[in-house]
Amino acid sequence: MKLPMRDAMARQADERVAGARVRLPRRVVEKPLQQVAKRLLMALGVLLATVLIVYLDRAGYHDNADETVDFLDSVYYATVTLSTTGYGDIVPYSDSARLANILLVTPLRVLFLIILVGTTLEVLTERTREEFRRNRWRATLRDHTVIVGFGTKGRSAIQTLCATGLRKDQIVIVDPATKVIDAANADGFVGVVGDATRTDVLLRAEVQKARQIIVATQRDDTAVLVTLTARQLNKGAKIVAAVREEENAPLLRQSGADAVITSASAAGRLLGLSVLSPSAGTVMEDLIQQGSGLDLVERPVTKAEAGRSVRETKDLVVSVLRGHRLLGYDDPAASPLQLTDRVITIVRATPVTPLTTPDED
Fold first, then answer.
1. What is the pLDDT of residues 156-192, one digit of tens each?
2. Whole-angstrom Cα distance, residue 154 to residue 139?
3. What is the largest CA-CA distance in the chain?
4. 3-class state of residue 304 by DSSP
């Protein structure tokens, strides 16, 4: 069994070998051609400034060829000086020319060299900044939500979570496809590229510190393995998994899932309900879509509601959660309500604008 420190060291070593698996949302940057054009213009500006300085003080320079320095000689001197070639055929000999070289030409030479190696410096800076952002992200991430799979089910789950006010920086996407993680980054989510059935991949997503985990894979056997691995790493997280076949639901529960959603059966029941009553199907679809129309909300019982009947609450109560028992609204045991109860109610949706935390460099 690995120690936490060894796990962290192994995870960082694996990232250095296999590349940056954790991908944070990137800022919008300039196009490469625009960056190159801007640098060329800056280099040209430095060159022209040096030519102007030399030409204005050309009387203080000595040319070994013809004793005088004209405009072409000024361009020639500026070019060989900025490129640090320095043939020595044109030299400053007056005090003013030498002072100008010390105070003006030398800083311009340094600036010219910085522009020339700007691409390399930018790459190194970007790598350092990315490593800093990744380390800071790991250090500050707590009680987040891990979504395994960024397909239709995963995206729908994220839409529901964001509609309830969950911030994007509190969601981590895990998917084996690089293009899928790129799409998640474009939407503002942190992504981890890799197979979620592997322990090291889930550790990169900091699943051991997560508050809730949603398993929305395409295959049921993959969902079982992901749930088993996630439960071993985090004993207290709430794990919700989706399966295609209803017969695999008990296996997911045995693997550690707190709730299992059978996607094929749920869709089939909604289809059947819509055939019998299209209006009822519309209402059910509205209920499972957070943030618009009617919402199903679980909340604690207030002090004013404690001791009263289910029908005396301000909201429409559907069920009462008492301990581990789920009681229907018409169950005699549901009333009177207790202060430790939680109620599942139908309320009018109040759209919530998700809060996003801007990236700091």
1. 888 888 877 888 889 999 999 889 998 888 888 999 9
2. 26
3. 112
4. coil
